[in-house]
């Protein structure tokens, strides 16, 4: 009896281990219902988060409640740096991802983004979609980490939020500027600043205390991160496209375990995050700029002549070079040719759209008394 009892206990624990390591979507006790755990390192009030929430709600709606997504925001479950590994390991089923968080692990994605050229928030999605559909190595790069991207957001732009006022490029010399990753840090150094690496959650306190003088941030952060409260000046330098490859992804094991009808719904709704985020991006930017003005901030858009000086100083090809070399060293071919093609494509799209920047739109609305 003792041997039998011991054997039963051992078998019991083996079953627990097997079940725990089997992967696949979290199943609730209700027949056929699937509950997915999800994580995002950014705040719930951010424009991207609104897109992720809309995606989760639409997934539940179109599956008639069969699939539910439980999202934790603000890095509570996984912070930015640990998101890729945590998602691949199955800590959560779904996560908000960005190549900026793990550039050395997503070298090709990190290289293929023509940043510091034109408006990526408006014009970047078309370029990104073209790359995703024509460069199969991009999909494989994420799958190597047991991660399956299912939706991409629009690109992102940054404006400068500073605790001091300035009028020209030279005024940035020696100022401490937040730099996210290698490319961003090189750009800020080229502008004459001293790059400082801090998380988005620490930006408010850093600017308030003066440990950082300038933070490049999407304009909605004036509201979502309360940067309007600590920014004495908000500056639009026009050539401020900041990021591509920000999206929503599944743990691959979880995704592969889903029923085919659910996978079809996921494919059908892949544009919703970008659509919702795009509108929220605009609305929150206008609200943020208005709040910054109410808080007494100076709002500046550089003249075309001054912004051209900034672009020349940033020198986008020099910013891209380390990322391109890293991708080449990782074994990827034709990286330079692909980024050159993407850059030309972005320029052509920008010429056709000729959109005014968000700050330019705000200043025009303000002058008309419409905001």
From TrEMBL:
Q: Which domain of life is it from?
A: Bacteria
**Keyword ATP-binding part of the UniProt annotation:** no
- Protein name per UniProt: TRAP transporter substrate-binding protein DctP
Q: From what organism does this protein derive?
A: Peribacillus faecalis
Q: Which Pfam families match?
A: DctP
Matching InterPro entries: DctP_fam (IPR018389), TRAP_DctP_sf (IPR038404)
Q: Does the keyword tRNA-binding apply?
A: no
GO biological process terms held by the UniProt record: transmembrane transport
Entry keywords, A to Z: Signal
């Amino acid at each position: 009896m003792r041997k039998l009892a011991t054997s039963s206990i051992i078998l019991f624990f083996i079953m627990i281990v097997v079940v725990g390591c089997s992967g696949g979507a979290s199943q609730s006790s209700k027949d056929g219902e699937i509950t997915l755990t999800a994580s995002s390192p950014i705040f719930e009030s951010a424009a991207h988060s609104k897109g992720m929430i809309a995606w989760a709600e639409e997934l539940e709606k179109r599956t008639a409640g069969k699939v539910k997504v439980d999202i934790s925001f603000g890095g509570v479950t996984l912070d930015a740096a640990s998101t890729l590994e945590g998602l691949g390991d199955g800590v959560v089923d779904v996560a908000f991802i960005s190549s900026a968080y793990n550039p050395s692990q997503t070298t090709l994605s990190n290289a293929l983004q023509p940043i510091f050229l034109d408006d990526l928030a408006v014009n970047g999605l078309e370029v990104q979609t073209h790359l995703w559909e024509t460069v199969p190595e991009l999909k494989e790069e994420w799958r190597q980490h047991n991660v399956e991207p299912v939706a991409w957001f629009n690109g992102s732009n940054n404006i400068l939020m500073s605790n001091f006022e300035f009028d020209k490029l030279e005024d940035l010399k020696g100022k401490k500027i937040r730099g996210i990753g290698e490319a961003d840090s090189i750009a800020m150094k080229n502008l004459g600043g001293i790059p400082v690496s801090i998380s988005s959650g620490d930006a408010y306190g850093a600017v308030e205390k003066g440990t950082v003088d300038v933070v490049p941030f999407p304009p909605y952060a004036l509201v979502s991160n309360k940067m309007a409260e600590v920014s004495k000046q908000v500056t639009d330098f026009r050539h401020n496209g900041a990021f591509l490859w920000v999206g929503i992804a599944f743990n691959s094991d979880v995704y592969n375990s889903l029923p085919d009808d659910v996978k079809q719904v996921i494919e059908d709704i892949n544009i919703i995050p970008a659509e919702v985020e795009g509108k929220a991006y605009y609305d929150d930017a206008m609200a943020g700029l208005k709040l910054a003005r109410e808080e007494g901030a100076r709002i500046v858009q550089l003249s075309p002549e001054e912004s051209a000086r900034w672009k020349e100083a940033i020198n986008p090809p020099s910013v891209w070079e380390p990322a391109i070399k890293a991708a080449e060293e990782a074994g990827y071919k034709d990286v330079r040719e692909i980024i050159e093609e993407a850059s030309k494509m972005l320029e052509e799209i920008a010429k056709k759209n000729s959109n005014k920047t968000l700050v330019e739109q705000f200043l025009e609305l303000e002058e008309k008394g419409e905001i």
